[in-house]
Design brief:
Elements (H helix, E strand, L loop, with lengths): L4 H37 L5 H5 L7 H14 L10 H16 L1 H21 L20 H57 L1 H26 L1
Helix pairs in contact: 1-4, 3-4, 5-6
InterPro entries: DnaJ_domain (IPR001623), J_dom_sf (IPR036869)
Pfam families: DnaJ (PF00226)
Protein name: J domain-containing protein
Length: 225
């Protein structure tokens, strides 16, 4: 008695499809975790690094890349424990690049880094990235630019933090001065009040003293007379 050949062949095919789905899910989960790790390790002062996009990207390209990555690593889809943290970092980076002033500030630092790298290669600062002299370098031009940008951004952040610290110190000094002025005014007000409250006592004391002095003078005159 022969079995049904169609059923015997369909079962292996279904198993293969199920296995393929499982492998795809596992691969997808792994890739999501890899992307989370990449974002967590990215240089936080360079939003382009976080979004893994070139600084020449248009505003629309940046938004598109952000949507792709944000959906890919969304905490609801990614099993990585730090997916929420990576998601917030990504969102902040997109926000910085969407802000015209912030992006221009970052671009200015990167452009400065580019000039320094090209000068170090003894090339004109107007040399385009496509120039053959920038190709085949070891380390590559893009890597040199990224490292130089990183150093400049770190230096800028250090200066910014020092300025903030100095401002806070100055604000603290001003606050202490104001507190001292307030304390001095309070002490003066308390002294004035105390002086007024004791006015009657001082007047009575003076009267008693004056009266006593007059009696002594009279007694002395009588004795001499």
């Amino acid at each position: 008695m022969s079995g049904n050949p169609s059923s015997s062949t369909s079962q292996p095919k279904q198993d293969e499809i199920d296995i393929e789905k499982i492998l795809n899910r596992e691969a997808s989960a792994f890739q999501r975790e890899v992307e989370v790790e990449r974002i967590l390790k990215a240089f936080k002062l360079n939003a382009y690094d976080i979004l893994d996009i070139d600084e020449t990207a248009t505003a629309e390209e940046i938004k598109k890349k952000y949507r792709q990555i944000s959906l890919f690593i969304h905490p609801d889809k990614c099993p990585h424990a730090r997916a929420p943290e990576a998601f917030d970092i990504l969102k902040k980076a997109e926000s910085e690049l969407s802000d015209k002033a912030q992006r221009e500030e970052l671009d200015a630092v990167i452009n400065q880094a580019r000039i320094l790298v090209i000068k170090a290669l003894n090339l004109p600062t107007s040399t385009p990235d496509s120039d053959s002299r920038l190709q085949g370098l070891d380390p590559p031009f893009k890597l040199r630019l990224r490292l130089q940008s990183k150093q400049l951004l770190i230096d800028e952040e250090v200066r910014r933090r020092k300025a903030v610290k100095m401002n806070l110190a100055n604000e603290g000094l001003e606050a202490r001065k104001k507190d001292e002025e307030v304390a001095q005014r309070k002490r003066k007000a308390e002294d004035d009040k105390s002086w007024e409250d004791n006015r009657e006592q001082r007047v009575d004391s003076w009267r008693n003293f004056a009266s006593s002095s007059k009696k002594k003078k009279k007694t002395k005159v009588n004795i001499l007379g």
